[in-house]
UniProtKB/TrEMBL annotation:
It holds the Pfam family CheR_N. SUPFAM superfamilies: Chemotaxis receptor methyltransferase CheR, N-terminal domain (SSF47757), S-adenosyl-L-methionine-dependent methyltransferases (SSF53335). PANTHER family: CHEMOTAXIS PROTEIN, CHEMOTAXIS PROTEIN METHYLTRANSFERASE. Residues 12-277 form the CheR-type methyltransferase domain. The lineage of its organism: Bacteria, Bacillati, Bacillota, Bacilli, Bacillales. This is Protein-glutamate O-methyltransferase CheR.
Amino acid sequence: MKDTLTVEEREDIEIELLLQAIYSVSGFDFRKYMRSSIKRRVENRMRLDHIRRISGMIEMVLYEKGYVEKLLNDFSINVTEMFRDPDFFKAFRLKIVPLLKQLPEIRIWHAGCSTGEEAFSMAILLKEEGLYEKAKIYATDMNEDILSHAEKGILPLNRMQSYTKNYLQAGGKQEFSEYYTTDYQNAYLNSSLLKNIVFFQHNLVTDGSFNEFHIILCRNVMIYFTGELQTYVNHLFYDSLSKKGFLAVGSKETLHTSSLSEDYEDFDSKERIYRKL
């Protein structure tokens, strides 16, 4: 029998118990997220709230109203921007758009959409290619607060210069400023860009398929998942794609190690775009 545990071993046990408490209280399951990512966020919250031990956070999750929501916001990954990775959107425009023009309708799922910038970027691209009117964009995230912000189509004005640069590098065909209005603080996307985007809550860990899609984008989300959870989510995407549908993942993600790798064509290896066979 082991007499003592190291500090790291104790912390690992506490994190397991914390994630179980969060799941029991909220239904949100982070137990199969990468521990390194979870640990960074837990340590940051401990500093902010002046908590000495993770066990103190467990008590607050169980007994302090609203605390679990605070942790859910901490754990939600909200790194995004308009036309992020411009080369991806350029490849999408050049290689996938011609194929989409043959379809009577287009269904696109942005999984883990955060504040919506990727979905807005797609709306602009489709509008420029004459495809937006026959497209429906489903943008989902597990974080309700983030979604309520996203559906307003409000962007920080101080980011618009870098967003414009991304747009031009992605092959934009208009003046980017045509797509929004501004005041002294924010940029407001034209309402015509929002009409075919549906934002709603969906948890990749616990929720199932809800439609059949021609395109699924889940970029830079699964890097925070364990291998087991990545396999589960990849199967969810496979089941949600139409035949010959496209799956786009992040630059640090791949299907090559997945049991589904033989069920996809490596459509654009550089931009991590796969096509279901």
